[in-house]
Amino acid sequence: MDPYCLKKLNEERRARRAAVLLTDLGDGRDRVIKEGDPVAGLLGDAIRQAFLSGKSAVAEVEGHSFFLNVHVPPPRLVVIGAVHISQALAPIARIAGYDMEIIDPRTAFATPERFPDVKLYAEWPQDVLDAHPLDPYTAVAVVTHDPKIDDQALVRALKAGCFYVGALGSRKTHAKRVERLKALGLSDDQVGLIHSPIGLDIGAASPAEIAVAVLGEVIKAFRARGLQAIRQLEKTA
């Protein structure tokens, strides 16, 4: 691999940005394509599908063969609220391969004793997320029921294009939340992306069951993200 390409690829990976190392199998030349870079024609279609699926592949385009080596950030789960649901969610998220972080300014809840082996921030979400920005490969689950904690996290999650944004609460609670978020400048389309009530509809009642429902919905959103977009591309091809 060209040393310049390797440096550029590593920079993208450190910044949690998706990239494809494109190799022309005819002459061996490499180049790095960042997600969102304009690439025209059939090769551009193949690269977009590779980003969406996360799978490396060989693409045959107009008599040329290209290897698309896809580098997609591992999915991350950021939970706002150090509550019982979060305690149950931490071990199953780890088993499913999600890097999980918990943010809660309430120091009585956000303690290492309650959340061993979890990246924990006993700070206000806006301060943490300004220092550690969200990205499209991050899911955000908001579970505190406290607008002072929840709302700013939701604003940042929706503006960052997180692949999943969920919020705990009844439909009545969510209706009030929607009005607050609109007052903070979010559009109807943005607010409409919030999954609320949070989690798959499996009749979950206990914190552990709600945690299972939340992780199931997160996984569904992550996997469906690529499938839905690929199908849309196929329809317009």
UniProtKB/TrEMBL annotation:
InterPro entries (alphabetical): MoCofactor_Util/Proc, XdhC_Rossmann_dom
A Pfam family the protein falls into: XdhC_C
Domain XdhC Rossmann: 77-218
Annotated PANTHER family: ALDEHYDE OXIDOREDUCTASE MOLYBDENUM COFACTOR ASSEMBLY PROTEIN, MOLYBDENUM COFACTOR INSERTION CHAPERONE PAOD
Official protein name in the record: XdhC/CoxF family protein
Organism, as annotated: Phyllobacterium zundukense
